[in-house]
TrEMBL record:
The lineage of its organism: Bacteria, Bacillati, Bacillota, Clostridia, Eubacteriales. This is Uncharacterized protein.
Amino acid sequence: MLTIKCSRCKSKLYKYYKVGKGKVIKCHKSRIKKQFGIYRDNGNYKCKCGNIIGSDEDSYIKMNNKAFIYTGTKEG
């Protein structure tokens, strides 16, 4: 389970169940377990500070790799 945080203000965005090795490039919406400070605006997902975290791609969020940090362990 990973905790995804904003790289600008360090606030928690959501808890995510990551499967497999590698970088967090896209987050499947079905694996997001709990949301904190993230909202959707014109097809983009943003933090409360206005930082654009990723874009909506139907069943997943395509992440901006410089916009977030994560803590926790990856499964797989």
